[in-house]
Design goal:
It is built from 2 helices and 23 strands. By secondary structure, the protein is mainly beta. β16, α2 and β17 form a beta-alpha-beta unit. It comes from Clostridium gasigenes.
Length: about 250
């Protein structure tokens, strides 16, 4: 096992700090204990580490496997990520898929892969992807631009622009942030920060949401929603300040 620090490389090679700072590109291949990046670095090759921590500008050209990774500052990963605990505190771009046990996004994450899969995700930033997010539990506050979310338990507050084609879950609680003058403008022209095509679940609660279709067992439509069609098998409750064009009891 090796230990790498950009300011102090310790392992098979030992380099002085002044000499090391002149080089920003390293070839990596194999298993590592810790990788710590304080300044700027490009790591060529696949990385398999116990712990990765970056507070500068980091680029990994290959796949990244780790028990724990925390990316602050800027980070770019050219391959897939398989990380047990992944925390994004800055701005990260990942070209491949992401598989994690726990994912915390407290910044901006762009995933160019088709799959972002984790057991638990906590959002306090934004995620942009042309793919699908799968999680057992999805909680937090922020914004999502995705094709689809599939999760057993969804409890999200969207206070940033959110666009989703589909949400599927067992228990779904989604609150959007209304724009200024929402009540006077939204019901006639739209204006919600949250636009979703289809929502399907068992127990669904929505507020400040625009959606084309909502389908579930028990559905509660809170204030300031615009829904084209609602299908339900149990009970439904619709706030007077919301608009539902079509309501169907299955």
């Amino acid at each position: 096992m090796l230990n790498i620090e950009v300011l102090n490389m310790i392992g098979e090679r030992v380099m002085r700090r002044s000499a090391l700072m002149q080089f920003k590109r390293f070839e990596v291949n194999g298993e590592y204990r810790d990788i710590q990046i304080e300044l700027d670095a490009i790591l060529d090759g696949d990385v398999d580490a116990i712990k990765i921590k970056s507070r500068g500008s980091a680029e990994f050209t290959g796949n990244v496997i780790a028990k724990e990774a925390r990316f602050g500052g800027l980070c770019k990963i050219g391959g897939n990520c398989n990380i047990d605990f992944l925390e994004i505190c800055g701005e990260s771009k990942i070209d491949g898929n992401i598989i994690a046990d726990e994912l915390i996004v407290d910044g901006k994450l762009k995933c160019n892969g088709k799959l972002l899969e984790c057991n638990k995700i906590k959002l306090s930033g934004t995620i942009t992807s042309g793919g699908e997010l799968k999680a057992s539990v999805a909680t937090g506050k922020g914004g999502l631009v995705l094709e689809k979310i599939e999760s057993d338990n969804i409890d999200l507050i969207f206070n940033k622009k959110t666009t989703l084609k589909e949400i599927k879950g067992t228990k779904i609680n989604i609150i959007g942030t209304k724009s200024k003058g929402f009540i006077s403008k939204c019901l006639s022209k739209g204006g919600s920060l949250v636009e979703i095509n289809n929502i399907e679940g068992n127990d669904i609660t929505l507020e400040n949401i625009e959606a084309k279709s909502v389908k579930g067992h028990n559905i509660k439509i809170g204030g300031n929603c615009i829904i084209e069609k609602v299908e339900y098998t149990g009970e439904i409750n619709i706030n007077a300040n919301s608009k539902v064009t079509k309501k169907i009891k299955l």
